[in-house]
Amino acid sequence: METKKRIREQTAFLLSKGWVQYLLALLITGVALLLCLSFRTESDYHLFSFILLFVVSFLSTFLGTGPVLLASALSALAWDYFFIPPHNTFKIDRSEDILIFGLFFVIVVVSGVLTTRVRRQELLARERERKTNALFLLTRDLSKASGMDEVIRVATEGITTYFSPESVFILREGDARQGAPVGLARSGQLPESEFQIAQWVFTHSRKAGTFTSQPFDSRYTWYPLTGSRLNPGVVALVREHPFETELNTFWEAFITLASNAIEREFLAESAQMVRFLHESDRLYKTLFNSISHELRIPVATIMGASDTMANTTVPRKMQTALSREIFTASLRLNRLIENLLNMSRIESGHITPRTNWHDINDLINKVAGDLADELKPFSLKVEIVEEMPLVKMDFGLMEQVLYNLVYNATQYAPPASEITIRCHYLHGNLVLEVCDQGPGFPENELRDIFRKFYRGKGSHTGGLGLGLSIVKGFVSAHNGTISAANRPGGGAVFTLIIPSERPDITGWSSPLNTE
Amino acid sequence: MPEKEIILIIDDENQIRRLLDITLTANGYRTLLTTSGKEGLIMAATHHPELVILDLGLPDIDGQELLRKLREWYSRPVLILSVRSSEEEIVRALDNGANDYLTKPFRTGELLARVRAALRTGESKKEEAVILSAEVSIDLANHIVRKKDEIIKLTSTEFSLLALLAQNRGRVLTHQFILRHVWGFGYVEQSQYLRVFIAQLRKKLEDDPSKPAMIVTESGIGYRFK
Question: Of A133, A176, B56, B133, which is most buried with the most CB atoms under 10 A?
Fold first, then answer.
């Protein structure tokens, strides 16, 4: 298969050279003549004219007009000279022989015209196929390309391959819908005069520059990129001569494709922007609604309770109860402020954990102490494996993490149930689990619970729905992961994994104590 | 009836100052109040209070600066008030000679406990040969530690660490301070040593090492011997 193909290619290559065609014409005609000469008879010389005519017609199927003319002239003259009696003269007596003699040249003319036409058709077809293929490839590459840079790169490559060694894309900037002025993004390398022309092309949606009706003394030809909903910019080519009709059609198809792809990217970008704005608007509303609610309740409690205590004579027992309400309200406010501050730290993206070696026991004790009141109705079980190494972490951040997880458990689990904190060290990671015997999560909510402002469907407790997203934020800051699941026996379990190498504790004892 | 102990409160926030005033007066202390650091320095010199409660964020003078000036001659306990999550500032204040700290918002019960502990520190003498802590006794001169009359064997580093903590009973000692005094200047960054030794001490001395009652962790700051 391979060799056949190679032979065909080589033949085509050889045939494309003029002198080879002439040589071939001479050779084949010569051989035919010699064969004919060897069978030469007086009587039947017309037979030889047919053979020679056949050879010439055969040659005309694959040789150019010139070589065929050579072959037919040679055949005609040779037939006249060697075969028409009297032999070895150019004399022709009979009129039918003159006709046959002329026929040699008629064939040349007819076949020449025909083959040239066929060949041109074929060439055009091949060229068209090449362009179609190129357009197809470009379509494929453009649709595969994601992101503006990629699209521009693909389009530029296409231009370099088919149209111009040098090209410049200038894209629009600003968005008319958002009130920003629409113009072209300034490009660094382009001279100001060329940029002005680009601007003109962009605003008028007409081509300009070399070989156009608006030459503007530019070294480029500028074309507007026109999309169906917005015009994404302009493109410039460097051409030595204007496009021929065929290439121009190709170019127009190409530029339409490229424009559409670039427009698509623009629309995608702005769609994303709209989504983002929409999302942040939603967050803002949620934040506003829930904060105003969450703030008002404790403030109202403090206001009312303290007012009662100050202005009415209430029995001592009730005074204590009221002050306890005030205290609870203030705790709630404090938690809210803490969570909002933490959230804004996460949102600002500037959390760099200040890690240091810590005893995980200290962390659990601190949180258990802070949540002592909330934990009163529960039994807290702490299970830490023997030989638990020190953990490298930011104590403050991890305290918030564990606080939120345990606090969550106290809010959802039924009183008198067990809350378990389990801790071990596995493959260079701290693994910490907080388990409760509450209702767990509906399976379809498991994915959403770490989202900002997400509140469970059956959530009866107050709060902003920030706790778990803070947990996730702080755990991520430690390059760790957190996941939630339902326990087989009922209840929820949060598992957090934080990478922490083992501490270097070589050089144990103090050099100050050498006794 | 013993004379009331004087507590000087230096804080520029009216509500906090009033709250401290009411709470401390109600619990049998005499209070002196001021909003300015400069005035606070003068009042400390003229009234010799038993305890100073100092807010670090004063408008007229940097709290740390004031603390350093105060410590040039004032040896009684100083309790720092600070906003939450400013551990660095707290550590700096403790290194500048403060005895203890409280972060706002705080519970008044916690405040009173700290005040009592700090005033106790003021009374006790550092040269005490035997320091008692519930069931544990420490004989500093003879390097003997007993728990329920049983001698506990400690390595020399463990003993140095325990002795340092016990001598500064009630006071918060920062990690760096402890590392500097027990291991030396070159080791102030090696906090893992300290954690390991604290864990060992707790294992040997505490009833429940996972819930230490004597050697208490001040998260992110240091340790305190209760």
Answer: B56
Single-letter code of the amino acid located at B27: N
Q: Which fold has domain B130-225?
A: Arc Repressor Mutant, subunit A (1.10.10)
Sheet hosting strand B130-133, strand order edge to edge: B130-133, B136-139, B144-147, B150-152
List the strands of the sheet with A233-237, edge to edge.
Answer: A183-184, A167-173, A233-237, A221-225, A208-209
Q: Which of B202, B219, B223 to mutate to test the interface with A (most CBs of A within 10 A)?
A: B219
Domain co-membership, A125 together with A210: no
| A132 in contact with B, Cβ within 8 Å | no
The CA distances from residue A269 to A147, A365, B18, in Å, are 9, 50, 57
A102/A337 Cα distance (integer angstroms) = 109
Tens of pLDDT, residue by residue over A379-414, are: 999 999 888 888 888 888 899 899 999 998 898 888
Predicted complex ipTM exceeds 0.90: no
Do A117 and A61 reside in the same domain of the chain? yes
pTM score, whole prediction: 0.59
Give the closest residue to A266 by CA, choosing from A160, A197, A169: A169
Report yes or no: A508 at the B interface, CB cutoff 8 Å: yes
Q: Which of B166, B25, B177 has the alpha carbon at shortest distance from B97?
A: B177
Domain spans of chain B?
A: 6-123, 130-225
**Mutation target vs A (from B210, B216, B224; most A CBs, 10 A cutoff):** B210
% of chain A with per-residue pLDDT over 90:
8
Does A340 map to a domain? no
Say if A357 is an interface residue toward chain B (CB within 8 Å): yes
Domain final residue pick, A240, A269, A298? A269
CB A80 within 8 A of CB A36: no
* pLDDT tens per residue, range B150-188: 888 888 888 889 989 888 888 889 988 999 888 888 877
* CA pair distance A210, B40, nearest whole angstrom: 84
Could you give the CA distance from residue B102 to residue A181 in angstroms, rounded to a whole number? 55
CA distance B121 to B166: 11
CATH at A173: 3.30.450.40
What is the enclosing helix (H) or strand (E) of A158?
A: helix A148-162
* CATH number at B6-123: 3.40.50.2300
Cα-based distances in Å from B28 to A99, B21, B123: 146, 11, 18
